[in-house]
Design brief:
Elements lengths: L22 H7 L3 E4 L1 H4 L14 E4 L7 H13 L3 E7 L6 H15 L3 E5 L13 H6 L2 H4 L4 E6 L14 H16 L3 E8 L3 H13 L6 E6 L4 H10 L6 H8 L12 H13 L5 E7 L4 H10 L17
Parallel strand pairs: 1-2, 1-8, 2-3, 3-4, 4-5, 5-6, 6-7, 7-8
Helix pairs in contact: 1-11, 3-4, 9-10
Length: 318
């Protein structure tokens, strides 16, 4: 199905009245994914008018969201031709029976065969699980024939996992997940928390590769939004040193009231990828904190609506 309202471009790939699209950025945005929640998805009249056909859409499962709402959103997106990847937050899943029920409902009602497994930002687990590794160890995803399993990554650490602000426990968990990928047929990737500075992202990704963790990385990027909104989300989500990028911008009165756009961080990462083709960041994953329509429009304007390849890259990809 063709996209409904993508703006026309000239032969050079630029929109009328706009500057030429950076080919490195366009290449880096190829096959990007985006995240929604049921309540935000309900406000979108037609996703097909905003996103390229086949876009992977993650559905965030926030504590308190009924599974009925999650499955309904998955069914709608799948029916529109998108690749649906719901979250499975370990700490809000009561027990193995609940996990099996969720998997069966997503599969039976929406044809879902992929998932993002994460601990979930809840202090006290609801039941038997408190980590994505425990979810993987159940074997239920494999039994159900799920083909793709993504796990969370934290380029700037995660104080829920490493209270001292280090990376020891986070890296140990990724080593375990790398081993799981090596010994199974799961197609796996690391989908990360968002960050705002390319330098620590590059250092983190290179450090993982040096440590033998070769799972492809889908880097989390915050989409265009008001600066105050981003700072609030960044603090709530535990974003680390790169938060200084936003704080510095907030001190500049000429930029304070202007919306933030991820142009700088994506341009730097795209240039690094072009210079180092083996760089293990393979895709961009957008958090549309300023709205799905705004994020989708930014991606389109920067060449992110290019056709998707028939086969994805990734661990154990066919």
């Amino acid at each position: 199905m063709a996209l409904l309202n993508f703006r026309k471009r000239d032969a050079a790939g630029a929109e009328p009245g706009a500057g030429a699209i950076n080919p490195q950025v366009s290449a880096f945005l190829r096959n990007y994914s985006i995240e929604v929640m049921p309540r935000t998805a309900d406000k979108v009249e037609d996703f097909r008018a905003l996103l390229p056909e086949g876009t992977r859409v993650y559905i965030a499962h926030i504590e308190g969201t009924p599974i009925d709402d999650m499955v309904r959103t998955a069914r709608r997106l799948a029916g529109d031709g998108f690749s649906v990847m719901p979250h499975f937050p370990a700490r809000i899943i009561r027990d193995r029976a609940t996990l099996a029920d969720w998997i069966a409902r997503y599969q039976g009602e929406a044809g879902v065969d992929q998932a993002l497994l994460l601990a979930g930002g809840v202090a006290d687990p609801a039941g038997a699980f408190d980590s994505s590794m425990q979810l993987l160890e159940t074997g239920l995803f494999d039994k159900a024939g799920f083909k793709r399993l993504h796990v969370a990554g934290h380029p700037e650490g995660n104080r829920d996992i490493d209270p001292d602000g280090g990376m020891k426990n986070v890296e140990q968990a990724l080593r375990w997940k790398q081993d799981f990928s090596d010994r199974t047929d799961a197609q796996m990737a690391i989908a990360t928390q968002f960050a705002f500075d390319a330098r620590p992202i590059i250092a983190w990704a290179d450090g993982l590769r040096d440590a033998g963790i070769t799972l492809p990385i889908h880097i989390g990027i915050a989409g265009p939004a008001k600066l105050q909104t981003l700072i609030r989300f960044a603090i709530a989500c535990g974003v680390g040193p790169s938060l200084r990028v936003l704080q510095k911008r907030a001190m500049d009165v000429t930029k304070l009231l202007l919306p933030y756009e991820p142009t700088e961080v994506i341009t730097e990462l795209a240039a690094h990828k072009a210079a180092h083709p083996d760089f293990n960041i393979e895709q961009v994953h957008f958090f549309p904190l300023g709205g799905i329509k705004t994020n989708a429009g930014w991606a389109i304007a920067n060449g992110g609506d290019s056709a998707r390849p028939a086969n994805e890259t990734g661990a154990h990809a066919s």
